[in-house]
Amino acid sequence: MNVLKPPFREEPSSEWEHYKLWVNAKEAIYNLPYQFRTDTYIEGVDLTDLSTLSSAVGATIEQQLVDNLNQMRSVWDPEDKYSEYAFIRQAQTFPDILLSKPGGENNSPILGIELKSWYLLAKEKEPNFRFRATKDACALQDLVVIVPWILSQVISGRPKLLKPFVENARFLAEWRNYYWQRSRETRGDTRIIIPENVHPYPRKSDAINDKPVSDSGNNFGRIARTGIMDEYKKNIYGERISGIEIGHWLRFVKMFSEGRTQEEIGLEFERFERQISQKAEIRTNGKIEVIHTILDHLRRLIEFE
Q1: Is the dihedral of CA 275, 280, 281, 285 positive or negative?
Q2: 3-state SS class at 207
Q3: How far apart are the C-alpha atoms of 83 and 296, rounded to whole Å?
Q4: Do residues 214 and 190 make contact, with C-beta atoms less than 8 angstroms apart?
Q5: Cβ neighbours of residue 209 under 8 Å, at least 6 residues apart?
């Protein structure tokens, strides 16, 4: 009987010629929430319709993140050794972003980033991003980056970024397969078809995705369900927007997607408002006026008055 062993996270050697650049690039990614600038502003959208905007706004954010990374050159290239290189977004192929010389497919990339945004108040309480690329399509230095966002005033404002989830792409591909096989050991459908002769930075026409023999629920590759993001998600939902934990905001938004009556929503809103207003940290940090302004706006939005 084969005993499944969890994969080992292997990273580029410190002897690699671009190692310092790779370290600096990761630092730049973690700094994106503090450096992110956008002209996108959302206002006047019904609360129940906000989640429908997540795909369109998310795509805009992803492009703007590439622009922001290039504007942070002093972080990832402080000695100006890579002046001919830039982060370039490529459509409909893996990975989403390459750090490469602009101007043609023959230029060898230094690293790749599979980048996805995650709207924190979406109906699903986790990112639904699917990562199916086989490990051999990932160079050792490639990264998977998931960037959570929320509107600055919860139901309006500019997108506000929070700390991204960053993981080694090759390790994540191995972890995904390990989790899939381990979780299905008793069902007899653990086999995964792995494409052959795959190399990092494949062409658009190359078949690079691992495929399970059986996947009736189309869940293969849903990274958030493999447990690797559990601690990260817990910390993100503990972050505060306008003085209230994001987890509480999510609970409030979910009230409108569960088919409740207006009366039930009204009672739940009153409980929500009471619990939030009683939190000691809100009363002591000067946020209470802001909270009441937002709650009053929400009350009018859902026509309680």
Answers
A1: positive
A2: coil
A3: 51
A4: no
A5: 132, 133, 134, 195
